[in-house]
């Protein structure tokens, strides 16, 4: 790999290497000191479950039950580590691949699939879970996240030292860093000292465009241009993911302003189910990263510590199989919602323009009924 370019793995924060061995880091080890074997087992469980769900969703798309699916295969450690570092008072703005963080925020995973079946924009209560609905427009949510973070600060929910202090975690991929919205969000966050953590999951490809075509330097280096502290870490290391995210969130919650963290990882599958990665990357690269599988390295460590038994693995397999069954039945049982429901959640409060448009649409639908046909 290029020792200085955007795909360099030199200088990454790493606390669990690919051989399943714990490492020390002068700056970040203390942020993972509370991760005992029980906590690591919980992370392994979540990573295993979300991967099984991911595979089930891919199968459903291949069967024609979903219009599209966005796999997170290979990025479980980056997501689960960050998800476990969150507090209830924090709020997450995901893009469209954060299935692991959704799990840690209590979202029922099958509900994610409603948007990919074309039934709803989102099917969970964002306020209840502290997890916003998925955003399909690349990078657009970064501005929304910054605005929400500024509101938290104005509402006195930052820097008080109380457990109620919170921060925003905004997640996006390497491709989004090339979007104007993300750069505007970084500017606004920096000059207003917003309590936000920008988490870049650098999986090395913006669809088929490699990171090397987007940047000449590691993406985290962009932080210094905005006056934002930044850290790069091994995104396939769940311990480092937890430690760095915890540090960044504590920094933001305490009123010290925004942080940019870059999880250097790899998309082991396709960008979406409409993509064929064999067209733009080599089998040798895929094999290289398969040896750095985030779940396998944690499993190796836990087995070496005698913490992960065959019974626990079997139990997780049974749970994953049940989730798959429940997911299939849910997806195939959903009915098409009334077309007018698109007006229901545009604004939190009634809005005159939306109500006028709803009334027009009702008349439009009725006009087809009057002619004896369906809209």
TrEMBL record:
Gene3D superfamilies: 3.40.50.970. Residues 47-321 form the Dehydrogenase E1 component domain. Pfam families: E1_dh. GO terms for biological process: branched-chain amino acid catabolic process. Keywords: Oxidoreductase, Pyruvate, Thiamine pyrophosphate. InterPro entries: Alpha-ketoacid_DH_E1_comp (IPR050771), DH_E1 (IPR001017), PdhA/BkdA (IPR017596), THDP-binding (IPR029061). It comes from the Bacteria. Its cofactor is thiamine diphosphate. GO terms for molecular function: magnesium ion binding; oxidoreductase activity, acting on the aldehyde or oxo group of donors, disulfide as acceptor. This is Pyruvate dehydrogenase (Acetyl-transferring) E1 component subunit alpha.
